[in-house]
Amino acid sequence: MANKKNTELAPVENFSIVSLYENMDPELMAELQDEMADLDAESGIDCRTIKLPAGGGFAYEVQGDDDDDVEYLKEITGVIIFTHRANGFWPGSYGSGDDGNKIPLCSSMDGKTGMRTDTGEIVTCESCPYNQFGSAADEKGNQSRGKACKNMRRLYIMRDGNPNIYLLTVPPTSIKEVNRQLTKIMGNGIPYTGLIVGLKLEKATNANGIAYSKVVIEKKGLLPAEAAAKAKELRRQIKEKYQSLAITMDDYSTAPPIEATPATAAESESEVSDFEDAAPIDTSDLPFN
After folding, report:
1. Which residues lie closer than 8 Å to 49 by C-beta, 6 or more apart?
2. What are phi and psi of 214, to 5 degrees?
């Protein structure tokens, strides 16, 4: 049955994953690399950002060559080359404070272990009081039903013929749907690095009647073997470096937090387990655990 499902998707032969220097004139490439060596070396991952709109909009904000160069897309087609959970805690209501508060007081790059920037204290996310429902504050500073700590999932995406890596940070309101879709992909025996997906937005409304945009992933086709091999190697490289890419307030979208009604609280607590338990193939080397 699994093989039958896999054959439903055909390889998209014209989809290519390219590097910065690919197909460049060798002499020009050598000169460019030599001049790049004159600059200070940078560690970590150089990503362009993809942001969700406010108010239930249907178009992603995709960063261009410059910070103020934005492309609006209703669908992003590409390959997820790496993904991991992340948490960030900003004191007070989300978005309050000045630019000095863009770095969270505490952050975790795996959703399991965090570190406070003020004391260096290591925190276990599961038992942290700020990662419990009912710990959040609203715009007026009053206690609300959500979590003070913002649970997120980062997706690193490559687009067809584009050498840039794009970073989409999925907010709590979309984590469950994204996990479910990725689980289905892995459950069919297809690594996510071997699949072309389309990311769209749906309008949803929370319990307080506030509209927000929800990320939806759709399968588009299989990567050709050569491109899939490149995606697998990129995943290995990013997995070695992703913890150096700091979380900032820009990671957390303007979508409102999930309100913890009894049903949503139970669903949210099961989101990770639902994803981790779906393993008809070996997932010991994946970043979801």
Report:
1. 62, 63, 166, 167, 168, 250
2. -110, 130
Q: Is residue 180 in a domain?
A: yes
Q: What one-letter code names the amino acid at 16? A: S
CA distance 162 to 171: 25
Please check whether residue 48 is in contact with residue 167, taking contact to mean a CB–CB distance below 8 angstroms. yes
Q: Report the number of distinct structural domains present in the chain.
A: 1
Residue length of the chain: 289
Q: In this structure, are residues 162 and 139 in contact, taking their beta carbons and an 8 Å threshold?
A: no
pTM higher than the cut 0.85: no
How far apart are alpha carbons 230 and 226 in whole angstroms? 7
* 92 domain-assigned: no
Range of the domain at 157: 2-24+45-87+151-277
More confident call, 5 vs 149: 149
State pLDDT tens for residues 2-60.
454 444 677 788 899 888 767 667 777 677 777 767 766 555 678 899 999 988 899 99
Q: Report if residue 16 sits inside a domain.
A: yes
Contact criterion met (CB below 8 Å) for 79 and 223: yes
100: left (phi over 0), alpha (psi -120 to 50) or beta: alpha
Tokens of 70: 């934005």
Q: Is residue 190 classed exposed, middle or buried when 0-12, 13-18 and 19+ CB atoms within 10 A define those classes?
A: buried
Identify whether 191 is part of a domain: yes
